[in-house]
Amino acid sequence: MKHITCIEDLRQLHKRRVPKAFFDYADRGSYTEDTLRANHDDLQQIKFRQRILVDVSKRDLSTTILGEPSKMPLILAPVGLLGMQHGDGEIHACRAAQAAGIPFTQSTMSICSIEDIAASVDKPFWFQLYVMKDRGFIKSLIERAIAAKCSALVLTVDLQVIGQRHQDIKNGMTVPPEWSLSKLLDFASKPSWVAGVLRGKRRSFGNIVGHVKGTEDLTKLSEWTASQFDTSLNWKDIDWIRSIWPGKLILKGILDVEDAEEAAKTGAQALVVSNHGGRQLDGAPSSIEALPEIVDAVGSKIEIMFDGGIRTGMDVMRALALGAKSCMIGRAYAYGLGAAGEAGVAKAIDLLAKELTTTMGLCGVNTIAEIDDRVIAV
User: Fold this and answer.
1) Could you give the residue numbers annotated as active site?
2) Three-class secondary structure of residue 146 per DSSP
3) Which is more confident, 160 or 364?
């Protein structure tokens, strides 16, 4: 790993080591991918003020996230199917995050179950919730997260209708998979990946199989999952969730000021400015474009997190400078997981940390609390 210099290096290694369907699932976006590209491109348009002759000998990345200490302002975001990027991927990613002293968020649509992760790590982790039509299942899922001592619930609010991801359709990315000669050859050319996945605890959605009647059959599981995303979900449902969940609540998927103002009234502790990584509404603004106005509107009322396009520590600095208190990364650590498992996730986190501390030094900043729009060149 010593020759890995950046997240893009991990991405290229991930691309070589993992079957195309699963790499593309992590890497690509919806429709024409305009919003996916904007997330990255708009971040790069933000330039820093280079400052000199400032004592930056005591730089410190530590901060607090939801009132809890964190070694840096970074969170591993929920990513579905991590266990198909690397066997037991959710467990390995969680371990890497906890070793780095930052939060990990498990996806509802993970391969490992809540219980699998809880039994394999030493500290609490966050759980991400999709609200489905089967509210009995959702209630039990929240109760399982409580039993596992999850320390925050991340409610994703931007997936009532699923944006089409063209590449997933072309790759036959389904559960069960659509098999073809090219796909069989692709899998056969990656024996290390195959062996790792086969060694994993599961190869299907661990939070669902065995907890919903009939989902032991993969075809039935796929049909159930496809039918369950709830287009009737609305603000009143958050009250229902809060009546069950006693802990910290985060609303993920806010991109509009009016929605941010409503989110601040719910009693949630934080919101995440996010467009689902360019995987939902194509043509939506980039997350970084939406961030400043949301910070101005509700930053004094609710903790604001940022998600969308982070590939470097410089990107983390940009989001913090515009008012975010912390940043989520998804693809950046998924690339590391696919490239080298737990060590790859640790490498992704380390790369971002070193880039962030270097950028702070060159901008004349010593602490996370000092980062604001004064580091941005006008």
Assistant:
1) 276
2) helix
3) 364
